[in-house]
Amino acid sequence: MSASFDLQSGIAKLLTPEALPAPNIPVLMRRPKELQSDIEEAILKQTLGIYINPPLPTRALDSGGPVLFFSDYEVRVRVVEQPKLNDKGADAYEVAEAIAEALHWSNPEAPDGTPMLAIPMKINPGRPLELIEDPTYRVIDVVFIAALQINKQG
């Protein structure tokens, strides 16, 4: 699998029921091939859910060798709530806070059990949360920054 997929999977493992403010909050990973309509359809089935977006490298450093080093890797964890229908026992704000607490300064494990990141994830100091609200939905993105090194194979 790709480093992005492995990072998503590692993040999902950190968002355990014990780390969240209410039981039975689904944690889903958005795949790059999924269309927005697929995501919206999944959201319609949930009154409150967490969606881990594919991490996006936003800055790379020239390592001078066969190593890719992304000094800024943006990780977005999205909380989507239908406030009028939500019966989970927590709202989007509480879940966003729990996500920030669970993931700030964490280092998700790769499939082989080793830490994935060169520097642990931290909440984005310039843009920690982004909120979109309308009469039906409340969407909060919790935004993190990570540093990731990928060693060239072979």
Protein architecture, described:
- This protein is an alpha+beta fold.
- Helices cover 21% and strands 34% of the residues.
- The chain has helices spanning 3-14, 36-44, 92-103; strands at 27-29, 48-52, 56-61, 67-81, 119-123, 129-133, 138-151.
- Strands 1, 2, 3, 4, 5, 6 and 7 form a 7-stranded mixed β-sheet that branches.
- Strand 3 (56-61) and strand 4 form a beta hairpin.
- The longest helix is centred in the first third of the chain and has 12 residues, at 3-14.
Describe this protein with a few key phrases.
alpha+beta, single chain, 21% helix, seven-stranded mixed sheet, 154 residues
- β-sheet strand percentage: 25-35%
Secondary structure: number of strands: 7
Straight-line distance between termini: 17 Å
Uncertain spans: none
- Computed over alpha carbons, the radius of gyration is 16 Å
Order of helices and strands: HEHEEEHEEE
Task: Classify the secondary structure makeup into a structural class.
Answer: alpha+beta
- Give the proportion of residues in helices: 10-25%
The whole-number mean of residue pLDDT values reads 87
Characterize the largest beta sheet: strand count, sense, and whether it forms a barrel.
7 strands, mixed
Question: What general outline do the C-alpha atoms trace?
Answer: elongated
Helix segment tally: 3
Blueprint (SSEs and pairs):
Layout lengths: L2 H12 L12 E3 L6 H9 L3 E5 L3 E6 L5 E15 L10 H12 L15 E5 L5 E5 L4 E14 L3
Brief characterization of the structure:
The chain has helices spanning 3-14, 36-44, 92-103, and strands at 27-29, 48-52, 56-61, 67-81, 119-123, 129-133, 138-151.
